[in-house]
């Protein structure tokens, strides 16, 4: 059964591309095929990290910027920053928006 949100966007059986777009829009996503309980991905905005670290405000010459990064909340209740998709993840069509 397909679940729909208020604006009629599909929220399950998504492609990887659709899951990435959901991340960019502030949603958390997961795969139905993941066997770990409570696992999901979310986007960490580089600007938010810079602000929290009080970094990136032009104080230094050639100061680098912090880029956005995908993070994973694992089944072990840890956060992995810089999650990388496997080929299986990229080709899967069982992605879902979880929140």
What report would you give on this structure?
With about 100 residues, this protein is of the alpha+beta class. The protein has one domain (about 15-95). It has three helices and five strands, in the order αββαββαβ. The strands form two sheets. A three-stranded antiparallel beta sheet has the order 2-3-4.
Gist of the model:
With about 100 residues, the protein is of the alpha+beta class. The chain has helices at about 15-25, 45-55, 85-90, and strands at about 30, 40-45, 70-75, 80, 95.
- Characterize the biggest β-sheet: 3 strands, antiparallel
Strand content: 15-25%
As a whole number of angstroms, the C-alpha radius of gyration is 16 Å
- Biggest sheet: strand arrangement: 2-3-4
What distance separates the N and C termini? 18 Å
Low-confidence stretches: 1-8
Helical stretch tally: 3
- Overall form: elongated
Q: Structural class, from helix and strand content?
A: alpha+beta
Number of strands: 5
Nearest-integer average pLDDT: 86
When the domains are counted, the total is 1
Give the ordered list of helices and strands: HEEHEEHE
Residues in helix, % = 10-25%
Topology of this structure?
Elements: H1 16-24, E1 29-31, E2 40-44, H2 46-53, E3 69-73, E4 79-81, H3 87-91, E5 95-97
Antiparallel strand pairs: 1-5, 2-3, 3-4
Essential attributes:
alpha+beta, disordered N terminus
